[in-house]
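Entry 12.
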Amino acid sequence: MSVLRKQGFLNTIISYAGMVIGYVNTVLLFPNLMDPDQVGLTRFLLQVSPIYAQFSALGFTNISLKYFPYFRDKDKKHNGFLFLMLLIPLAGFVVVTGLFFLLKPTVVEHLGKQSPLALDYYYYIIPLSFFTLLFMLLDAYLRSLYKTVVQSFLQDFLVRVLTLGAVFVYSWGWIDFQWFVILFIAVNSCTAFISIVYLLWLRQFFVRPGKTMFSIVPLKEVVRYGLYSFLGNVSTTVITFTDSAMIAAYSGLDDVAFYTTAYFITSAILVPSRGLNKIVYPQVADLFKAQDMTTLGRLYKNMTRVNMVVGFLLFLGIWCNVDNIFALMPKDYSEGRWVILFMGFARLFDLATGINGMILLTSDKYRYDLYFNVLMVALVIYTNYLLIPPYGISGAAFASMMVYILYNFFRVVFVAKYFKMQPFGWDSLLIVAISAVAFGASWVLPQMPHLLLDIAVRSLVITAVYGSLMVGLKVSPELNNGIRKSLVRLGIN
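Predicted 3D structure (tokens):
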């Protein structure tokens, strides 16, 4: 367990470092060095490729996390599991690519007027999607091996640093925008190559079929789970893409740039959960295999508390500095102000509901997660259809917030009913109350004369009020124990 805690700590540190680089790219460089439609195109590419990859994967990323414990045997090269995991999704990619060619006339009809730049780079999506798929599969395999740090470094840090370099090369005039897009795709594809090298170094790159790979777990069960998982994954990915696709169709890539930039700013709230979830998911699968529901219930509550403590602080830091953030960008980007508020609330509720999705997907009730996802897709499309035309990107964000809250509420109720566990306690209410006090402290603080000074002072006040109340009221044992251990290491008792 100490190894897992260490990996979780390293993942979080890497994610925070990557978040800083991501903010430099998204808040400072992209908006100030490119036209809004060019920024919108880069975000559009990064949102289409996961959908393409999920359709190709046919649910095999979740199959790895659920069934790998049954195949795990290094001496037998994990019984050909990696071969099985790569073979079917790569065949799926061929089929999806054929459909991608056939669908171009439909895409032209819907995006041609408002987003012509997206059509100019339509076929660039294919190589980006292929390497996105390959990385997703190898990442799931490595997580099943409890190897997460290198993947976090690649995805959360290295890609953003290389993107930073690509932006500078473009801004210096060394390449035109077309070559920037090619370089941008190469940067986001290199993680797959590095993952293969890493697996070779670990001596875990077993790509030969195993004689027993179809007998360890009944093939019918795997296929059925894969189908539900595939549909669930596609539903989740479609949800994240629907906003941008409908905004592009109604308003164009400029508004996509404003929306996705604000959307990315709120992604900092999810940083604590992303690092931890990479190691928690295989733990949940192992606990279900062992039927250790007591430990699982305790993990459920602990994850929720940790996520809320860090997530609420990050939300306060973003929202209380929202005017300062937009002051760093061209004026048009301030249209995303309410996107930050609504999506911030959505992400907080997502954090607060803990690991309910993992519990569903690794249990025998996994099919119900698909039903929730299908319902969510329908609600997202319908509410976006109603709210984007009159309210633009703010309407899209409000629609997503309401749908995310309903979606997670239903999953929490379902887990509570069937597994007799829920993530909340009195400490959850206390975290919300402390957040309100910290927000009040920022609200009464006068505006500083200089932008960076205001960001620094405001963030310091929020952190001091929030942190002192959290520690003083002992809301989070994890936080207090961490501080106590740090003091002991420094020789302070």
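Annotation: The chain has a mean pLDDT of 83. The chain has 20 helices and no strands.
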